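Amino acids appear as letters; backbone shape is given numerically. Here is one record.
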Amino acid sequence: MQLATRRPAAKALCLFCSFRGVHSSTQTLSLRSLPRPIARRPVPSGPHPLVQTLRHNSSTAQADTPPPPTSLYSPDDIKSYDRLFNAINEKLFAQTVGDSPQVPRETEVILAFKALQRLATNYSAPRPQAAKVTKANPNLNDAILSLAGSPGANVAPSTSKELPPQPVSQSQDTIEAEKEARLNGPVHPLMDMAYHIAIHPYVFISPKVLTEYVKLASILKDPSTLPSVFKLYANKATIYDPSKPASKPSANAAKNAISFQTAKEALQVAITAKNMPLALDIIDNSMSTTAWCRHKLYTKLLPFGGAAAAVPICLWKLSDWLAQFQEQWLHDKAVAYAFIGFMTYYICTGSLGMIALLTWNDHMIRVNWIPGVYMRERWFMEEQRALTDRVAMAWGYKEPQKRGLETGWEWEMLRHWAGVRGMIIDSSDMVEGREMTAEKEAERLAAQESLLGRLKLKLAKPKDTPKPKPKRVFES
């Protein structure tokens, strides 16, 4: 299988074409024609559908716009890499150029990823072929191939008014994500094509688009671009209307949180590829973010708190109803006695249940919390601990009696990474046969060092310079 090395995306008409010369480096590119002329899509009346969308309901807000047909890519388009490249360039990105560019719909991006998935199931790396010169519209070929740095790029620019305008330049977050992706080594050609689709300025990375991207990475077993795409998911500037500037999202917003199921599938791809640094980067960019903590706060803690606050009101109504069936005390006194009894039972049992729920610490196999970590921090980072446990189980011994004996730079990195985040791997309380006093003492010292390291990181902030005291005009 031929792998390609990433290079920075070209700032030109269509960023998707910038990697054309990367994977076809063994071929001598020349002017080649598209399968059929590019037809402009009709400009829809009114605002674009993506103007009214949020990240988690983008598919429902587009109900008024008729979706493209499911057979957008024919079986002939997914027979080879070159055919699919031309088909995606024509059907997805042709509408982003010209005098009236349009933003691709979410369904069109998903169909492009599904076509890549179908090609990935029976993909073979392209072989060197002789250059083929075909007759086609020279203006159209120069406009498209000049973006990839091919021989047609050096042609003098035409003065025709039909040439498309300059594209939207990349944002700083996209450039940084591109640099991080290049550091991960070679990338599969199909994965590189999908990555350039994701970083295109006009493409909106919705939860469904991210899910299809992770599925493609799972088929190709290539997790090299997943951390950078996860970072772009929350930081990429969004273009709703090409005539207006891009809007910068809030990376810490709850709607920009990656779902636990998507993060788990992405982590499984990194585990299959046996790449621990990428696996830890995936956890850092998914379950360790502020956006995930806020998402969990809004979706789990607030509904639970609202239900807990509504229980006393229900108990008061119940006490008032039960007080009608007695004649020994006054009605108000009977209601007060019944309400006090109900609330005593509710507070006592509820407190014990909350303590048992928050201190539940042995449902993981190899990863445990260091003593002293706050309960709120344990609750917010429980999914991070679950993914870390999956990494430890994948890289460690399968035999329970050998757990804790692993060595190597990967395990040193994993133990340090977990210790800084308040977790300990293979504690003496969770591993059978390690209840000796010496091992417990060594484990306690290691946990203490990790806890001190976490405290130093939290306290390592620039001290606020003291403000000068105002001078008194009249001394007392």
Notes: The mean pLDDT is 74. The chain has three domains: 15-257, 291-358, 367-458. Residues 290-322 form the longest helix (33 residues). Residues 15-257 form one domain.
